[in-house]
């Protein structure tokens, strides 16, 4: 392990900044103080800001192949279009995982939670190749294989009509076996690769699938992930399915816990919010995706006041349509100023940074090891260049990083003390070659016609009162 000392670097200290040296020994932060002895390689931190790495706490890497082209649709129709045009092969999964990692790193993230869409029939291969991509880049990866055991149309409320749905192509038991095998083959937390249990959400999963995931989570000490109440349709569906809210139901079946992260959480009521607080579940806020799909504005200020842990995600690049974590953090902070006129509740830039770092670590049950610049914690660090044009003139560095439009500001990044970004470039993979591959394997397109959308749109409109 390479030891190093970052010298004369700016860090946040209470309401102010301090200039310090930071020693990294064996992948962990060994000391933070002015004028330390240089251990290992010296790194010039002058005119740079050091922050703990952020978490891109919810994304779907392979959606990168359809960013920019998806129709202007709400989630349920958007999903139908997405899956009609997702003829992915493992090589594409590999490239989009690399791309997701690179964009996350260059916007301040050192960890990514990839709610990974599995290629039917090639499930373990999909997980294997995404794992390979993340290992090659060196980003800390939380791979959450996206599973369901009901077919797509079951995710839309029936309303007055009696809807029949095709059975899902794979049994619940077979799906759980895939996840267990993935845990055996790939779950290596000490090496920065984690497998999560991740049923896609109540809209497409049976209680048996949730129960199986909870059991695997308990047996192998795995974090839990899921979408939750992203749309009004899902709120309606939960009432149809359970006769109560989705949150009440998830609590009843034991899925909520202090290592459960829940993406979106747009349509929760006050009692639901109290349940999230009580179970210490984490909300992953995906503001850009929620706007793009018209899902709604998640009541993030209410979560914070209720003591619910909140962190940020980009969500997949088909509903965003990028993986710029700083953009998600900015939008996820200022969006809520219009939801509460009491400005004392608004999210400050420093709070946003803490949500993006410590908030992510808490949700993944590793706040003792990551998420802050604390002696003893692992060195997942990002160094920002404060001489970059977009961070000038000199004002409040964190204020401008969160509220401005920082461009190419990440100078260096380390994961577990290993440097994987230097001089603004990812050093572990050939990014130029990645760029070429993404270019060569795609083409400019405009109009596409989704057959599934054509089949379900009339019912969707009727049941949603449109
Ligand atoms: Zn998602």
Automatic annotation (TrEMBL):
Xref: InterPro entries: Amidohydro-rel (IPR006680), Metal-dep_hydrolase_composite (IPR011059), Metal_Hydrolase (IPR032466), MTA/SAH_deaminase (IPR050287)
Keyword annotations from UniProtKB, A to Z: Hydrolase
Keyword rRNA-binding: no
Pfam families, A to Z: Amidohydro_1 (PF01979)
Domain Amidohydrolase-related per the UniProt entry, residue ranges: 50-419
Family matches, as CDD domains: ATZ_TRZ_like
PANTHER family the UniProt entry points to: AMIDOHYDROLASE-RELATED DOMAIN-CONTAINING PROTEIN (PTHR43794:SF11), AMINOHYDROLASE SSNA-RELATED (PTHR43794)
Protein name as catalogued: Amidohydrolase
Species assigned in the record: Nostoc favosum CHAB5714
